[in-house]
Structure formats: C-alpha cells, structure tokens
C-alpha cells in the first residue's frame, strides 16, 4: 500500500492530505483521443478520511455490495449499482484498516489496536478483540479464519466466529520502515506475507508454521533511509508463482513451491502490481507504468507520461489497466501497448453531480483546499471502476467502447 515513512516530514515519500506535496514537477497531461465512452453511474459522500494516507481504508466489493469505512468510525454497506446506503453504523472510534469480507461478517481494524466483527447483513457488532499493534493492512478472510498483519511485524489468525486466536507468527522488522504493510494473500494452503526488511514469507495457513522465506531485496546503504526495502504494495500469486515488488529494490517472480526466485530485476514500487494473462502491470515510484512478461520479467511496454503524478495502485478492467493520480484523474491504458484510451476527472464528475456552490468541490464540508489525490486502490468489476479519493468522494465510473 502507498504509505508514509515514520519520519514523515523529512522523507516526503508521500503527501499527507493536510499538507499537500509539491507537484510542480509533475508531467502535464496531454490531450488524448478517447476510444471509450465514459459514464458516471453515481457519486457519493462517504465521510472523513485519515489526515495521513497511511491508513487507506480500502473499500471492498462482493455480491454487488460495497463496504466502506470512514476515519471517524462509520462503516456502511452500499448497493454497487446505484450507491445507495443499505445500512450504516458508527463505531465511535477511529478506524485504520480496509474492510475484510467473510460469508456472514465483515472485519475492520481500529486505532485502539482492536479488530471488530460486524454482521454483513445488518452492520450490528458481533465481537471485538485486541491485537498486538496498529493494523493498516486490510484483513484477509478465508473460510472460518481471519488473517491480520500488524505494523509490528506480526501475523495472527483469528477464528471468525469467536475472535479467538488460532496461531501467531512474528517477524523482526527494521527500526525505520515505510508506515504500513501490504495485506497477506492466500494461495491454496499457503499464506504469503511481505515484510519491511524486503522478505517474503510463506506460512501454513492452518498452523502458522513457516514453509519458506525469500529475500526479495537486500537493504543497502549507510543510513536507515537508504536501507528502506519494504514490501508494501499489492502482490499476487498466479501460475505457481508469487509476483512481488519492494521499495528501493526489485520486482521478482518467486516459486510458490519452495520460495526460489525465478527471475528478478531492479525496480522500486510501494503501490505494487497485478498479474493478468501472463503479463505483470506495475506502477513504480516515479509514476512510470510497466508491463512485463510474467515468465521472464522482460519489458513489454512502458508508459512515462504520468511521471510525478503520484500514481495509484493499478486495477484491471476489460481490455485496460486503470490508475488514478494526485489530481483526481483516472486513466485507462491499453493492455496491449500502454497507450491512453480514456480519461476521467473526479472533479468534473463531482461538480456535475451536485449543484454548484453546495459541496461542489468537496466530498465533505471543509475549510481549505484538499487535492483529489487517490491513494486508495481503485476497485474494478467488469467495465466499472469504483474510485474513492482522499476527500472521501466515491464514484462509480463505467467505460464502454464507442459505437462506430
């Protein structure tokens, strides 16, 4: 996930909402010949977001239902088709994690180092239990287990019905890290997790026993800052391999069987990658977007026209990769060659949906300007992209081929 380092002010690795980064060097957007018809399906106010973008509060979608949390403790379920609230509850405390969705419950993490289980149908609280430290990663729910990764390097499995601990694993982390952690992933009986020292670890999902450990990046440099090598972005398991990136490090393909690195190349990313149809799509720290061959790591194409625009994690829709930037623009790029095929502006979408002068520029009433930075990974289902910016504005945007 895109997260700020502990020494936030001096590192300036990420722009806090309260103190926007200087984007004067960001590339200006050139006009494009749009090949897609862009349509806003709905827009919604979804409440306050964290002052620091380290807590991303990533929404979740399943069965045409969207689950959204705000920093002040509001959690709600929306109809993905029209954005209408189906239920909304207030937990009365600050939330820090995205939403994990199970068959009958959803899971959120609080600033008070607790995980809270809510009934998926009604939003009523089922239970809550303490965790070892703050959780910024989205919890993973599979079957009857909840897997939680906390900022102290621990992974804990909880029973989804009771909140009781099933097992716990602890990993040593450096003194200085990027503030945050990527969510673990499940592949078969393996839980795969990335850590702040550049390590990728496979655990038995049922027992927590370690299967293998792979070093994606060896921290190098004289200072703690130079040695930052966190695995903080999206990573993915597919075709018997795990594809992963690290900050100031490498992108690599790692065997799920034994943790052996199949190939690796120098590349830095803190938002991560996605794999689709044998291609890997990566947004690097400079804002370049890459397509690599998943078998070899060879470059298939590279798009440089978003450099400096603080590009979000990627999402994939039909025929396109979608990213958002610091100024609230959403970009559709061809999967084939990386060329821009469509673009939308969250500012325009928001202002078109509301009467000018009445919250026309902001998701919630505010006293000063907040940029429409998008650090929360967009969600994509079929040809619809769901984007939540750092003001709390949430939009469903459809992109369809233009009729001849």
Describe the fold and architecture.
With 404 residues, this protein is mainly β. It contains two helices and 32 strands. The strands form eight sheets. The chain has a four-stranded antiparallel sheet, covered by helices on one side. The chain is globular and about 55 Å long. 47% of the residues are buried. The model is unreliable at 1-20 and 357-370 (pLDDT under 50).
Q: Tell me the strand order in the biggest sheet.
A: 1-32-31-30
The major sheet is characterized as: 4 strands, antiparallel
Q: What is the straight-line distance between the termini?
A: 40 Å
Please tell me what the overall shape is: globular
The mean pLDDT is: 84
Strand-pairing-aware structural class = mainly beta
Helix content: under 10%
The portion of residues forming beta strands comes to 35-45%
Rg (CA only): 20 Å
| Number of strand segments | 32
Q: Could you name the ranges where pLDDT drops below 50 across 5 or more consecutive residues?
A: 1-20, 357-370
Entry summary:
With 404 residues, this protein is mainly β. The protein contains two helices and 32 strands.
Write the layout of secondary structure elements.
Elements: H1 8-11, E1 36-45, E2 60-62, E3 65-69, E4 74-79, E5 85-90, E6 100-101, E7 105-110, E8 114-119, E9 125-130, E10 140-142, E11 145-149, E12 154-159, E13 165-170, E14 185-187, E15 190-194, E16 199-204, E17 210-215, E18 236-238, E19 241-245, E20 250-255, E21 261-266, E22 273-276, E23 279-283, E24 289-293, E25 299-303, E26 315-317, E27 320-324, E28 329-334, E29 340-345, H2 346-353, E30 379-381, E31 384-388, E32 393-401
Antiparallel strand pairs: 1-32, 2-3, 3-4, 4-5, 6-7, 7-8, 8-9, 10-11, 11-12, 12-13, 14-15, 15-16, 16-17, 18-19, 19-20, 20-21, 22-23, 23-24, 24-25, 26-27, 27-28, 28-29, 30-31, 31-32
